[in-house]
Amino acid sequence: MYWADATAEKIIKKRDRQGIEEYVVSSGITPSGHIHVGNARETLTADGIYQGLKKAGKKAKLIFVADDYDPLRKLYPFLTEEYTKYIGMPLSEIPCPEGCCNSYAEHFLNPYLNSLKDLGIEITTYRASECYKAGMYNDAIIKALDNRLKIKEILDGFRKEPLADDWYPLNVVCEKCGKMINTKILGYNSEDKTITYVCSDCGFENTVQPFDGIGKLPWRVDWPARWQIFGVTAEPMGKDHGASGGSYDTGVKISRMVYGYVPPEKMIYEWIQLKVGDKAVPMSSSAGVVFAVKDWNEICHPEILRFLLVRSKPSKHIDFDLKGIPNIVDDYDELERKYFELIEKQKNNPEEEINTNDLDKIRLYEVVTSNIPEKLPVQVAYKFCSIIAQIAIADNEEIDMERAYDILSRNGYNVEEFTEFDKTRLIARLEMSKNWAKNYGEKLIINTKEQAKMEYEKLSDAQKEWVNTFIARFEALETQDITAMNLHELIYEVANSLELDPKDAFGASYAMLLSKKYGPKLGSFLASLNREKVIELYK
Questions:
Q1: Cβ partners under 8 Å of residue 350, min gap 6
Q2: Quick one: which H or E segment has residue 122?
Q3: At 156, is the pLDDT very low, low, confident or very high (cuts 50, 70, 90)?
Q4: Are 23 and 62 spatial neighbours (Cβ–Cβ below 8 Å)?
Q5: Which UniProt keywords apply (predicted)?
Q6: Burial of 18 by CB count in 10 Å (0-12 exposed, 13-18 middle, 19+ buried)?
Q7: Is 528 helix (H, G, I), strand (E, B) or coil?
Q8: 189: helix, coil or strand?
Q9: How far apart (Å, rounded) are the C-alpha atoms in residues 71 and 92?
Q10: Within a 10 A sphere around the Cβ of 301, how many other Cβ atoms?
Q11: C-alpha span between 223 and 217 (Å, rounded)
Q12: CA distances from 152 to 20, 144, 149, 167 (A)
């Protein structure tokens, strides 16, 4: 069974007896910097479980809580020195770094939420700043203050050094300077529900009810409070939160003993590491090691990101290599072909049982593809698209689609049969692969006539003979006969007639065309180039 459905099934078995009317699956993030692909794994894992619950016939809701009321903790590498003065203030109250959004938090949050729409995720978003200011946390704050010593005892049980005797489970946003990391609660009056606090940043002191945004619970108390407020029954978490003694373990005790709420099931996901050169390093907004989700849509289809993040169990580690995007797309295309093959098989032989592995493939495709086409769409390999996009480029840097269709025709595609869906997806893939090649892949730089001549002089006599024989045969071909298949056969035919190892023929071609020892599939590549360009370089 596909992991998301299996997880949903386990949750249902444990929770159905509690009489739950609606299963709430939660996800969240602190928008302190660019929200990256690693962060997206949590949201997409939550979405997978949410879909599993719906498939099982349960009423379910997927929510996203943006922790935009957390403070700016330091001057991150992407910030100017001017932002030093905002350290300690809630992210929602700090100006946008580029002046394009209402706040610092919105600057990083909005692109991510827009990306979730592109990914086809149905989600209800809550901003912590709005929730606190609207009073949604007021009762939770009172319970935390009334149970201060109980919470301290719980947390101390997981600490090497106990919290100070005068510690309170609340951070106060100073009413004068707006900062919250250097305020200290001096006392709490349980009768009138007031606290007295002093701010060491500006010296302001006041006695006030810490409600409607004045007070914010610290993370280890905020999280279990949130479970009760939103009725959370399932929530994925990073391995740091799920580690022994982490915020989940303390949250479970606080949830049960303070808020009287059954905590959500423990579901840990592994980090995604970004490959930088030969090394794989954990993504981190604060360290500047990121690939933002908003940037993904510039280089690849959204369903491919979903496929990357949910094709394996959340506990499986992922190394994310931008250079490997074509391989990921190839894997998705293979899944898509298999899906339609299996659907056709079910249609023609409804009584024939499909094995578990194939059922999982059907389910995976359904989970990652928000708009499933009626039939198998035309698939043009991503790597080949990147080549077409660079060859069929017009003077205005736009892709010449007439030229692109001509290249596809020479490579065995019946362009006349392309549906509107096929054309739309193809155009998107061409544009995306062009961006990928420009920024992360291999740029296609075809040699000049002079460079080709220099490479020719380096070839062996046997290779030179192959080049001269091949181009003579090439020139004799009719235009309609210049196809990838015909040229592929001609490459081998000429090599065999001269008793030349075909790999030496390929090596000679790549040298003269690209000054490299390797390159795209040669038959397809030559069929994609202008006839005159091929003749010019080979001669």
A1: none
A2: none
A3: very high
A4: no
A5: Aminoacyl-tRNA synthetase, ATP-binding, Cytoplasm, Ligase, Nucleotide-binding, Protein biosynthesis
A6: exposed
A7: helix
A8: strand
A9: 9
A10: 20
A11: 9
A12: 31, 10, 5, 8
Residue 303 in contact with residue 333, Cβ under 8 Å? no
> In whole angstroms, what is the distance from residue 338 CA to residue 354 CA?
12
CB 41 within 8 A of CB 320: no
For residues 109 and 293, what is the distance between their CA atoms, to the nearest angstrom? 11
Over the stretch 451-498, which tens digit does the pLDDT of each residue have? Answer: 999 999 999 999 999 999 999 999 999 989 999 999 999 999 999 999
pTM of the predicted model over 0.85: yes
Other CB atoms within 10 Å distance of the CB of residue 537: 23
Number of Cβ within a 10 Å radius of residue 375: 9
pLDDT of residue 122: 86
Whether 537 and 471 have beta carbons less than 8 Å apart is answered as no
> What are the angstrom distances between the C-alpha of 495 and each of 212, 342, 455, 469, 526?
80, 42, 19, 9, 16
pLDDT score recorded for residue 273 = 82
DSSP state of 20: -
What letter does residue 224 receive in the DSSP assignment?
A: H
Estimate the share of the chain in helix, then strand, then coil, as percent rounded to the nearest 5. 50, 15, 35
Identify any residues that bridge with 25 across adjacent strands, giving them in sequence order: 62, 234
Residues in the chain: 539
Distances in whole angstroms, Cα of residue 126 to Cα of each of 129, 238, 266, 323, 372: 9, 20, 22, 35, 29
* CB neighbours of residue 155 within 10 Å: 19
Question: What are 61's strand-pairing partners?
Answer: 24
3-state DSSP assignment of residue 314: coil
- Show the tokens assigned to 268: 């840990």
- 450: burial class by Cβ within 10 Å (0-12, 13-18, 19+)? exposed
- C-beta neighbour count of 238 within 10 angstroms: 18
* Helix or strand (DSSP H, E) at 199: strand 194-199
Quote the radius of gyration of the chain (alpha carbons, Å): 30
The β-bridge relationship of strands 272-276 and 279-282 is antiparallel
3-state secondary structure 249-283: HHHHHHHHHCCCCCCCEEEEECCEEEEECCEEEEC
Q: Which residues pair with 126 in a beta bridge?
A: 65
Please tell me the distance from the alpha carbon of residue 115 to that of residue 47, in angstroms, as a whole number.
14
For the segment 126-151, what is each residue's pLDDT rounded down to a tens digit?
999 999 999 999 999 999 999 999 99
Residue type, 446: I
Closest C-alpha among 218, 153, 159, 155 to residue 183: 218
3-state secondary structure 387-448: HHHHHCECCCCCECHHHHHHHHHHCCCCHHHCCHHHHHHHHHHHHHHHHHHHHCCCCCCCCC
pLDDT exceeds 70 at position 289 = no
